[in-house]
Amino acid sequence: MDVTNETTDRSDLRRPLVEKKPFSDVGLESVLTETSLSYRRRVYLGACIEMKLLFRLAIPAILVYVVNSGMNISARIFAGHVGGQELAAASIGNSSFNLVYGLMLGMGSAVETLCGQAYGARRYEMLGIYLQRATIVLALVGLPMTLLYTFSYPILLLLGEPKTVSYMASLYIAGLIPQIFAYAINFTAQKFLQAQSVVIPSAYISGAALLLQILLTWTAVYVMGLGLMGIAYVLTISWWVIVGAQCLYITWSPRFRHTWTGLSWASFRGLWSFFKLSAGSAVMICLEMWYSQILVLLAGLLKQPALSLDSLSICMSFSSISFMVSVGFNAAASVRTSNELGAGNPRSAFFTTWTATFVSFVISVAEAIAVMMSRDYISYIFTADADVAVAVSDLCPFLAVTIILNGIQPVLSGVAVGCGWQAYVAYVNVGCYYIVGIPLGCVLGFTFDFQAKGIWTGMIGGTLMQTLILLYVTYRTDWDKEVEKARKRLDLWDEKKEPLEN
């Protein structure tokens, strides 16, 4: 008898089950519940599994969001090289248009909650109906938004923006109006794909659209001489290119044969119920996105408004790039949390939450350090104005703090989307941002005459308060109850009933 083989076999029997299987085949929940492993070993193996899953989702999602944000930044760069007033007009136009961007992105997040939990529970037939119903609801919401932006010029004047800049910004906004309906399709399709952990194709599509936009914008500005309006038209065309490519991919790819079965009349039923469900998501996301944009709008009321607008818009451009990185982890955390809750894995949902938050925080600290090291030079990407460069350098410490906070807060918001807490977070956002942050910023900026620094300090205070509240709520969460809530939410679905928020 071979004693060596017998010893090996017996030793293998004593090894934990999770260490007998190939690493890629071991589930996170199995590792975290394997009592034969030490706590430290479970954390180590769990972190290895989760980091692989997290980065597989987050990196392509970051690319998508950075590229989408980069399209607006590219438009600002071209506008800045056309002229100072054109840069201010494009900054106000893009900031104002973020109203509908945030609205559509927020309402699309309801798709992320429902599709993510349904996919985790293997109820694939529900995803296509959610996608169609959400697209219809968002397109209907886009109609009154179109009317609002048609009257952007008097609205900007009412807000106290300079007359010349307001007029140019209103023309720029008019060229962006068709984007409203591109958003309605894009964000629902994007969440549909993310819920199934399909993110790489969207990154390729967005990257190709950005390259196309840069080429067409250069042609429109320097060859055709269309100026600011050419920049707006090309930006709109680029968004519709993304939409067309995503729709073709979902329709023709065989990987969605179980989740996309074609158009269905069932998608027209219960639109009002879905609207109410998505309203909480919209309020949560909108309040977050509008918060930083209000800083740019308030800058138009300060002394030397053109200089304040230019410097703050440049800082906000870098902040938005950093924010998009965190939003990539937001998407990954939302998908992972909703999938694990739908699959009935409370420990995995908990572990996913804190892993994503920690990784995003470390990356944001590195970004803040990079900003501080290059504070005297980063403005020259947008403009050659030396006065703007000095102003941007002076604001970089505030930018660095904002970047660090944005490394935590969006990920926790992603967890909230995955769990379906949007309505609660919306109340938190109202209190922290609009009752504390903005009023405090206005007092410091205008009453105490700290100008842009005062406004930004107040708004950082609101973000810090919101981040601390979300950290506390997430820490106190009973994940077993969240699994039960997800199950009940999905059990409310059948062909005649509509999904409701618990």
UniProtKB/TrEMBL annotation:
<feature type="transmembrane region" description="Helical">
    <location>
        <begin position="136"/>
        <end position="159"/>
    </location>
</feature>
<feature type="transmembrane region" description="Helical">
    <location>
        <begin position="198"/>
        <end position="224"/>
    </location>
</feature>
<keyword id="KW-0472">Membrane</keyword>
<feature type="transmembrane region" description="Helical">
    <location>
        <begin position="354"/>
        <end position="373"/>
    </location>
</feature>
<protein>
    <recommendedName>
        <fullName>Protein DETOXIFICATION</fullName>
    </recommendedName>
</protein>
<dbReference type="GO" id="GO:0015297">
    <property type="term" value="F:antiporter activity"/>
</dbReference>
<feature type="transmembrane region" description="Helical">
    <location>
        <begin position="454"/>
        <end position="475"/>
    </location>
</feature>
<feature type="transmembrane region" description="Helical">
    <location>
        <begin position="230"/>
        <end position="250"/>
    </location>
</feature>
<feature type="transmembrane region" description="Helical">
    <location>
        <begin position="388"/>
        <end position="412"/>
    </location>
</feature>
<dbReference type="GO" id="GO:0016020">
    <property type="term" value="C:membrane"/>
</dbReference>
<keyword id="KW-0812">Transmembrane</keyword>
<dbReference type="GO" id="GO:0042910">
    <property type="term" value="F:xenobiotic transmembrane transporter activity"/>
</dbReference>
<feature type="transmembrane region" description="Helical">
    <location>
        <begin position="424"/>
        <end position="448"/>
    </location>
</feature>
<feature type="transmembrane region" description="Helical">
    <location>
        <begin position="165"/>
        <end position="186"/>
    </location>
</feature>
<dbReference type="InterPro" id="IPR045069">
    <property type="entry name" value="MATE_euk"/>
</dbReference>
<dbReference type="Pfam" id="PF01554">
    <property type="entry name" value="MatE"/>
</dbReference>
<dbReference type="GO" id="GO:1990961">
    <property type="term" value="P:xenobiotic detoxification by transmembrane export across the plasma membrane"/>
</dbReference>
<keyword id="KW-1133">Transmembrane helix</keyword>
<comment type="similarity">
    <text>Belongs to the multi antimicrobial extrusion (MATE) (TC 2.A.66.1) family.</text>
</comment>
<feature type="transmembrane region" description="Helical">
    <location>
        <begin position="271"/>
        <end position="291"/>
    </location>
</feature>
<keyword id="KW-0813">Transport</keyword>
<feature type="transmembrane region" description="Helical">
    <location>
        <begin position="311"/>
        <end position="333"/>
    </location>
</feature>
<dbReference type="InterPro" id="IPR002528">
    <property type="entry name" value="MATE_fam"/>
</dbReference>
